[in-house]
Amino acid sequence: MRNLYYVDGSPECFFTAVFEAWKDGNAYLFSQPNIQTGLGDSWHDVTPDPAKAARVVKKLAALDSRAPYEIDCILRSFSDEKEQIAFEYIRLLVQGGVPVRERLSEPVARRAIELQQKVGAETHNLKGFLRFQETQGGVFYAPCAPDHDIVDLLMPHFVSRFKTVAFVIHDTKRHVAGIYDGRTWRLCATPKNAELILTEQEDGFSRLWKQYYNQVAIPERKNTRQMKAYMPVRYWKFMTEKQGE
Amino acid sequence: MIDENRLKILTDGAKYDVSCSSSGSKRKNTADGLGNAAFAGICHSFAADGRCISLLKILMSNDCVFDCKYCPNRRSADVPRASLTPEEICELTVGFYRRNYIEGLFLSSAVVRNPDYTMELLYKTVLLLRTVYKFNGYIHLKGIPHADKLLTQKAANLVDRMSYNVELPSEESLKLLAPQKTKKSIFTPMGELTAGRAQYLAERKKGGGRVEMKGLGRYLPAGQTTQMIVGASPETDGKILRLTQAMYRKFDLKRVYYSSYIPVVQDPLLPDKTAGLLREHRLYQADWLLRFYGFTSEEILPEDENLPTEYDPKCAWALKNMQFFPVEVNKASVEELLRVPGIGAKGAYKIVSARKHATLTFEHLQKMRIVLKRAKHFITCAGKFFGSDDPETVKFRLMLAERTDSAEQLNLFDQGLLPPADAEKFLLRSTPQNALAVLTGQL
Fold first, then answer.
1. Which of A21, B116, B161, B311 has a CA-to-CA distance to B57 between 20 and 30 Å?
2. Domains of chain B in sequence order
3. Is the dihedral of CA A100, A104, A106, A108 positive or negative?
4. What is the nearest CA distance from A235 to chain B, expressed in angstroms?
5. What are B342-382's pLDDT values in tens digits?
């Protein structure tokens, strides 16, 4: 007997749902439309309401200044339960009246923190694993297919690094891209197919990098298992050194 | 662009250097520059040996006038020689950095002509990289022993980290295997860099803390490291760890790396066998205890001067000091928790913050992902004890826990630490009957 609150996946809609479901003890928030519904479950489509969402965010920030960031991370996760976990975490926070992230004996806090750490970990990993290619227009292009929706979390890191160089980070799974023109960056939707024309020296650099990658390993200490543990195979698709293996 | 052959030779010469970390520096980018440093460091790839690749680790040249016995690039060796010009190194670094292959450069070199000449070329390279190429990413520079002090100091102003490798843990071994190096030629520049860093910090404090924080002119923000080869010479673990501890205290090193000896060169003075990864692993564990867990080398080292192979040094210490255990997780201080085998710095922190809000039970710890297979013999949770009282059983379980740890388990057998019969018993552990036998101690 759950009251299902279906949200559209945007943070605003999620916070609206939190507002509307607040007093509902049987509320279940989700954005995955193929949910298994049970007998007696009732379905509500939530319409985003900026005023309601703003009130929730304000309350959150007042109780714990880090919480809005944490919720933002949780909502980026690929977990089907992310909205519900975030909702329960907010409830715990409001009931407690003080930050609850250290209460690891509480299952709600633990699950929320774990989800947030997974998103944070992938963001950190991709700061290393992302590979750029130089296109003929002088723009550097990096495709990726992360588990979580994190392209906009990666952008500031590379903007401060590359400064004068224009670049694009393309999430091929969600068809969005972060685009930096050398001054400002924005996020936009991308067409499914785009053609890339690479510079001539691109091939030279990628061959040198592959050479380096293979040479720097110590053959007597081969340890494929550890390599894969630190650098999961799902990221290899876009990594220069792992092409043609 | 440089050719693949030279890259191959110069990578080959540099790859036995263990250090590849890019942490410890917060260097910022400049308005029209390229790159910055991430304080926590970033791994960009992992090589087939499982090691992280975060820096372009390369020699400027492998054409050496020194004749260190263990080194594949020694003067008397017949190997292909190659060199790169400062411009070539800069272009390669910047090209790799733009593609996000690397976090920065780890530049080292054989001693070309003489130490001063080599150091000057290294200095020129980093200067070019920082000024002309406006590169603000991470740079780790290897110091050249015997080189001019002024040159070294100037280089230290440009890079994030410098290191001099001790290589061999005693003067006698150095004399025997690296005749051109002495203890003094390594420790003197290390000391000068430590003093230089202290002076820089003092001046920055005087200037209100804002002096040249950006780009050029920060003095070794990520400090110094060093490396020792383990197993090429007869020193005990005790000797190595005491030297390590002394260097941490005296030179304020960020890290000491250990590299298990691999016979890449044939020489009657060198062993012809690989030293094995287990000893290296134990030294790293002990090193961590020195740096993060408040232990001293005197506490960790047993009378026979070598770390036990059966279990990690913290387990060994705890077994000898059972009077301190068990500790109650809801009351023990952080220092006490850190001394419990199996509880690390993260685990101790999690426990201390979670117990403010609730009395922790054994189940709580499990759910919090504290690894308990070792710890349970040394703690109580809300007064309850879940380990074994019998010291022999505890020892046995700890050894077993060690063997089920993934990374090193097979090495125990590879190195013949266990007789083949015993090894077989443990390798068969995957069947349900076996698992039961293990639990009831019948194996």
1. B116
2. 4-294 (3.20.20.70), 313-405 (no CATH)
3. positive
4. 10
5. 999 889 999 999 999 899 999 999 999 898 989 999 999 99
